[in-house]
Amino acid sequence: MPSAPTIKLNNGKEMPLVGFGLWKVNNDTCAQTVYDAIKTGYRLFDGACDYGNEKEAGEGVARAIKDGLCKREDLFLVSKLWNSFHDKERVKPICKKQLEDWGLEYFDLYIIHFPIALKYVDPSVRYPPGFTYENDKVELGKATLEETYHAMEELYEEGLAKSIGISNYNGGLLLDLERYAKHMPQTLQIEHHPYLVQQDLLDFCKSRGIAVTAYSSFGPQSFVELDMQSAKDAPLLFDHEVINAIAKKHNKSPAQVLLRWATQRGIAVIPKSNNPSRLAANLDVCSFDLADDEIKQISGLDKKLRFNNPTNYGFPIPIFA
């Protein structure tokens, strides 16, 4: 059974380099999917309030532990603070609710999902709350990112989160965070694929000892089904001649090549699949190496093309403008 190598975070914790992303995993299959992924060898699961499947993910974890497939300490479980809970007094209560949903005492990593503060929505009214407040309108909150980050640091100091991180931050926000952080984040999670390389941001994180996790490693693949026009207009990476030529040379799938392009450069990945053979193949992406020129060829496909942008979903929050 393959298992992923780990990377050491700046607080000494070890994080698997390959995990399983829970975005768009259906509620009715999520518990079984998590269970099967643990059985395959996955130990990192990347969830979020916004995915709406944390209870089911926790059920899969609980059954795997009960059946002796793993122990809690073998797992690296990740969740995220949603935009509606950025006010300092909201952070700990929602984290505790999410822990309860998972059936956990702590998260191995808890992340600020977006650098966006939205108006608070009580979980009893709507959960997960999504981007809109009432009447499908986006209403911004008043919390600063500094206020929210200090509340995250409290979770870290109290042990509710063994590590903390941010997601969808750019270099400017990271430079600002450095000014006020008591504890630098352990990780930054960003959209990262050959069409959006963000090398300057990667270099900056490396200089500060912040580990990077890539989401949407397959580029437009995840967004075509969301009917996103920019994804439809972009050539699928699985069909790209450069990716396919390298995959053929190594006798690997295009997906494995894309994941290895990231992991060989020290970037963690969180793909998902419901197919048992692809589950195993995605996990086993550190058993071969790409040549330096192959890595350069793949990086050379950069189009600065971002898919996971609030404006692409019709929300007037241009955080990447």
TrEMBL record:
Q: Which N-terminal residues, if any, form the signal peptide?
A: none
Top-level taxon: Eukaryota
Q: Say if the entry is tagged with keyword Lyase.
A: no
Q: Where is this site: Lowers pKa of active site Tyr?
A: 80
| One GO term (biological process) | D-xylose catabolic process
Molecular function GO labels:
D-xylose reductase (NADPH) activity
Q: Which residues bind substrate?
A: 113
Spell out the PROSITE patterns in the cross-references: ALDOKETO_REDUCTASE_1, ALDOKETO_REDUCTASE_2, ALDOKETO_REDUCTASE_3
What region holds the NADP-dependent oxidoreductase domain?
Answer: 19-302
Name the CDD domains on file: AKR_AKR2D1
Q: In which pathway does it act?
A: Carbohydrate metabolism; D-xylose degradation
Answer whether the UniProt record assigns the keyword Lyase to this protein. no
Protein keywords: Carbohydrate metabolism, NAD, Oxidoreductase, Xylose metabolism
Which residues of this protein are catalytic? 51 (proton donor)
Q: One Pfam family this chain carries?
A: Aldo_ket_red
Family per similarity comment: Belongs to the aldo/keto reductase family.
UniProt name for this protein: NADP-dependent oxidoreductase domain-containing protein
Q: Which organism is it from?
A: Baudoinia panamericana (strain UAMH 10762) (Angels' share fungus)
